[in-house]
Amino acid sequence: MAILGNFVNRVMILMHKFYDGKVEAATATINFTDDNLSKEIGGFYDELQANFEGYKFRQAQQTMMEIARPGNRYLTEKEPWKTIKTDPEGAKDALHNCLILIGHLATCLQPFLPGTAKKIFAMLNLPKDQLFFDEDFVLGYRAPVKCTVITV
Fold first, then answer.
1. Nearest-CA neighbor of 9 among 142, 137, 150, 116?
2. Least confident of 23-27, 51-55, 82-86, 146-150
């Protein structure tokens, strides 16, 4: 749980520090821009589905907790706190990818810790407090606090 909390906290702090908690995007949705990260997260969904269908709930929970590891690794590799000065677009893309990953984390967290998942959805200003695995999510952009999408 510490890995998940650390990742979410790091991303939210950076979003508030560099972007006042606002996601600047051309549309109300942001998508993964890193294909490798997207594929890796897709693999976790496949593993989760197989575990649930096989009634392997303990393994499903372990898989869900593992989703934060690539996020932490990705954030450390991209170093948006450093690249914000030399490559602001790259830093923004990295943080957007991390926000998307956090949304996926919260979605996968729902069966195990629904209250925590709702808190994460609220941090992302999602218009709903629960999502299904096959449902897209749009980061909310009307709430005045936390992470907000601003179309530019």
1. 116
2. 146-150
Look up the pTM and report it.
Answer: 0.83
The CB-based long-range contact list for 118-127 (8 Å cut-off, 24+ gap) reads 120/8, 122/146, 123/8, 123/12, 123/147, 124/99, 125/149
- Cβ contacts of residue 93 below 8 Å, gap of 6+? 33, 34
Give helix 57-66 / helix 68-78 axis angle, nearest 10°: 10
Question: Tokens in use for 86?
Answer: 């030399």
Q: Which positions ≥6 away from 12 have C-beta within 8 Å?
A: 21, 123, 146, 147
Hey, is 116 helix, strand or coil?
A: helix
CA distance from start to end of the chain: 35
CB-based contact 99:15 (threshold 8 Å): yes
Q: 73-91 burial, b for 16+ CB within 10 Å, e for fewer?
A: ebbeebebbebbeeeeeeb
Cα–Cα distances in angstroms (integers) from residue 31 to residues 82, 96, 97, in the given order: 23, 8, 7
Convert the pLDDT of each residue in 83-120 to its tens digit. 999 999 999 999 999 998 998 898 888 889 989 988 88
